[in-house]
């Protein structure tokens, strides 16, 4: 057979391709499954993949979407497009010490296009694109699996043949409905993985096209090899994993195109056999193509390294505790345990969680830990598969197993902690591409069972059952990703030891105003992780608002002790100390916060309030001015400047500040109200009236707006209008300070006027 030939002269590749169709065993022969034309097979896969995740189309922005999309200035039109190439995925400068170095400019560009077309942050468009991308990838998988399972073979006209239509359809369906993909599809930030996978597959298919027969009769097309390298570069600009496609292309070339027998090659190397060309290593074009792939990959990595800078990303122990273990043994054991858990998620994707860090998976510190069994099981299976892939006499089996393992392992390498520390324990999104290898191995196993089974239809029904269960699991998991409340609560049963899960549930409750329930979850987060400074900060904030100042101060003090550069905790500590009337300590805390975060407008605002309480008016005005310089839309700082200048009799300056503020924030009714008060005192009644009425139109239920307009009319002499607005104000707030007294004065004046008139 062709697959076992190792002649001194390499056979013509064109002849090989045409003859392989007759010599390769057919994987579909013993499989009881649906046989559909290519078009219908792809239509079915597209429809089923759409069905799995369709209910996520109208979900909210959840979890990491807030940082990567809503708070990412790179999505806004005012940010120059060039900035995308110097910022990380989250909008931070790559040169920053806090950057995670996740360089995905093309993914961010698609978010920006979504934002511009939608005219704002409307999640529907973002979700729809993700669903379409997954459907497209699933359709491409039909072609990819036909190559992996049936081989790369062409007709006389140069058209690629699908020699495994049934098994390639099954594998594509398994991929399309795998529940572990939910995070990538239903979570908008998962688009990085989807785009990476799309160009990854296009790169692989492009590389396969390099060996299609052409008119010139060349063995391969350099053009398509270069296209494949370029698509690999694009994949990496969507997510770092994309670069691994070049390694897979090299493996594919060696094993499928050149029929390299790895075991035979190793034996020849060990015996120093000089006839290595017999093993296929030096066949025409292989080394040249491998050199092209390696050169392209090295160039891409070098350019990325130059853009990213030499500094590694900064992660903390809670992100990936095993990587911070002192013992090499502990690190190795836990890394391998993480691999086994990833494998289990592929085999049984029932326990899914949005985050697996912060104590979710306790470290294995001893060989007596029963979880060592999982490692043993993983490596028992892997070694068995590797032995079969290397030692089997069946070249068809060697090819499928090697490619299956290649797709399973190679795309996973960047997340393996082997080359650099990653910022997670387990992330379901990173096994989107490795699941291709799982689907290959599962389908091949199914074909072997079908060959041995007498009742093949029962086996087919069982696989159909698995597909149906996965579809239902995808739909359920997609619904959980529709809102943060459902997503976070779904994790409580999966990772009850994960402090971040409790923190996020608490934060979600706090955002909805349920502080009592939020306190419970924040306390549990701190109990599970006594160094969880963000949970301490948020809990301290709630206790501060509930006037439980003593405990709030203790928590915030502990937070800044654990993390001295935690600017937000320093500011909140300053607020608590201010409430406790420990003004010097509060001022010191505010300045420490500003030291660690120089552009901190909210801290300058709070510092200004402290100075105002101490009657240090110039310092207060300077602090608020700093806040507005850093954040021109900081309405509270503008308002406080106007009010302070008004109260100290600086009406002209107050008016100037008010007008400046309204130019920047023209629709802020609170600024209209403050400036209207100043103009009224300056006897600019007409302009003051116009601003009051505009403010009331924007916020008609503000009693103070009606009350102060009534005072204006009272001064102006429009007594009937004054009476009307006093009455509206008292109706909205019967206890409004001063309004009742002013109203009574007006009534007495009206009575006196009536008597005089009578």
From TrEMBL:
Q: Which GO terms describe its molecular function?
A: dolichyl-phosphate-mannose-protein mannosyltransferase activity
- In what residue span(s) does the DUF1736 domain sit? 311-383
Q: What is its main location?
A: endoplasmic reticulum
Q: What is this protein called?
A: dolichyl-phosphate-mannose--protein mannosyltransferase
| Pathway entry | Protein modification; protein glycosylation
* GO BP terms in the entry: endoplasmic reticulum unfolded protein response
Its keywords, alphabetically, are:
Endoplasmic reticulum, Membrane, Repeat, TPR repeat, Transferase, Transmembrane, Transmembrane helix
Q: Where in the cell is it found?
A: Endoplasmic reticulum; Membrane
């Amino acid at each position: 057979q062709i697959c076992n030939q190792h002649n001194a002269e390499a056979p013509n590749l064109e002849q090989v391709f045409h003859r392989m169709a007759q010599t390769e065993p057919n994987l579909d022969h013993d499989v009881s499954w649906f046989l559909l034309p290519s078009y219908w097979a792809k239509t079915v896969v597209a429809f089923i993949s759409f069905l799995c995740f369709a209910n996520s189309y109208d979900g909210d922005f959840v979890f990491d979407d807030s940082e990567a999309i809503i708070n990412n200035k790179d999505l806004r039109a005012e940010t120059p497009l060039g900035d995308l190439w110097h910022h990380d995925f989250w909008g931070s400068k790559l040169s920053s010490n806090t950057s995670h170095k996740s360089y995905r400019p093309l993914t961010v560009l698609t978010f920006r296009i979504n934002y511009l077309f939608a005219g704002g942050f409307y999640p529907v468009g973002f979700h729809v694109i993700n669903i379409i991308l997954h459907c497209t990838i699933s359709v491409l998988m039909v072609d990819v699996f036909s190559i992996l399972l049936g081989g790369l073979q062409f007709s006389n006209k140069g058209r690629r043949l699908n020699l495994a239509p049934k098994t390639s359809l099954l594998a594509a369906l398994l991929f399309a409905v795998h529940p572990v993909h939910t995070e990538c599809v239903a979570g908008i930030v998962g688009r990085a993985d989807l785009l990476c996978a799309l160009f990854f597959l296009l790169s692989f298919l492009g590389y396969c096209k390099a060996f299609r027969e052409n008119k010139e009769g060349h063995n391969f097309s350099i053009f398509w090899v270069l296209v494949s390298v370029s698509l690999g570069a694009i994949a990496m600009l969507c997510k770092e994993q994309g670069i691994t496609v070049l390694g897979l292309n090299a493996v594919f070339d060696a094993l499928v195109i050149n029929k390299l027998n790895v075991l035979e090659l190793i034996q020849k190397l060990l015996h120093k056999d000089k006839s290595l060309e017999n093993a296929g290593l030096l066949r025409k074009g292989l080394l040249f193509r491998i050199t092209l792939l390696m050169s392209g990959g090295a160039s891409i990595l070098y350019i990325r390294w130059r853009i990213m800078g030499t500094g590694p990303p900064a992660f903390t122990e809670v992100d990936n505790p095993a990587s911070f273990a002192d013992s090499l043994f502990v690190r190795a054991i836990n890394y391998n345990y993480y691999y086994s858990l990833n494998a289990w998620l592929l085999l049984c994707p029932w326990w899914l969680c949005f985050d697996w860090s912060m104590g979710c998976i306790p470290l294995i510190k001893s060989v007596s830990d029963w979880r060592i069994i999982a490692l043993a099981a993983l490596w028992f299976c892997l070694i068995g598969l590797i032995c079969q892939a290397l030692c089997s006499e069946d070249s068809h089996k060697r090819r499928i197993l090697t490619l299956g393992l290649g797709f399973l392992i190679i795309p996973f390498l960047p997340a393996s902690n082997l080359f650099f520390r990653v910022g997670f324990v387990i992330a379901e999104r990173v096994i989107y591409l490795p699941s291709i290898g799982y689907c290959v191995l599962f389908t091949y196993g199914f074909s072997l069972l079908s060959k041995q089974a007498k009742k093949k239809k029962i086996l087919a029904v069982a696989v159909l059952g698995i597909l149906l269960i996965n579809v239902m699991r995808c739909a359920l998991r997609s619904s959980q990703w529709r809102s943060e409340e459902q997503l976070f609560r779904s994790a409580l049963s999966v990772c009850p030891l994960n402090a971040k899960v409790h923190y996020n549930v608490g934060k979600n409750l706090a955002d909805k105003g349920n502080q009592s329930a939020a306190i419970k979850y924040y306390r549990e987060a701190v109990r599970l992780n006594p160094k969880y400074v963000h949970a301490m900060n948020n809990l301290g904030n709630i206790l501060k608002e509930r006037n439980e100042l003593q405990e709030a101060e203790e928590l915030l003090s502990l937070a800044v002790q654990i993390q001295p550069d935690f600017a937000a905790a320093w500011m909140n500590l300053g607020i608590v100390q201010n409430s406790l009337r420990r003004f010097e300590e509060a001022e010191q805390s505010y300045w420490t916060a500003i030291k660690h975060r120089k552009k901190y407008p909210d801290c300058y605002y709070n510092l200004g309030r402290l100075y105002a309480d101490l009657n240090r008016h110039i310092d207060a005005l300077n602090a608020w001015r700093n806040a507005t310089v850093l954040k021109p839309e900081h309405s509270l700082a503008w308002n406080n400047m106007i009010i302070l200048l008004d109260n100290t009799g600086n009406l002209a300056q107050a008016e100037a500040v008010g007008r400046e503020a309204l130019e920047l924030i023209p629709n802020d009714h609170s600024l209209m109200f403050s400036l209207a008060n100043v103009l009224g005192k300056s006897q600019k009644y007409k302009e003051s009236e116009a601003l009051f009425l505009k403010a009331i139109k924007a916020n008609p239920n503000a009693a103070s707006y009606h009350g102060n307009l009534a005072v204006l009319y009272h001064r102006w002499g429009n007594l009937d209008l004054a009476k009307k607005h006093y009455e509206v104000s008292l109706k909205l707030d019967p206890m409004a300070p001063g309004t009742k007294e002013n109203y009574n004065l007006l009534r007495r004046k009206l009575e006196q006027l009536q008597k005089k008139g009578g």
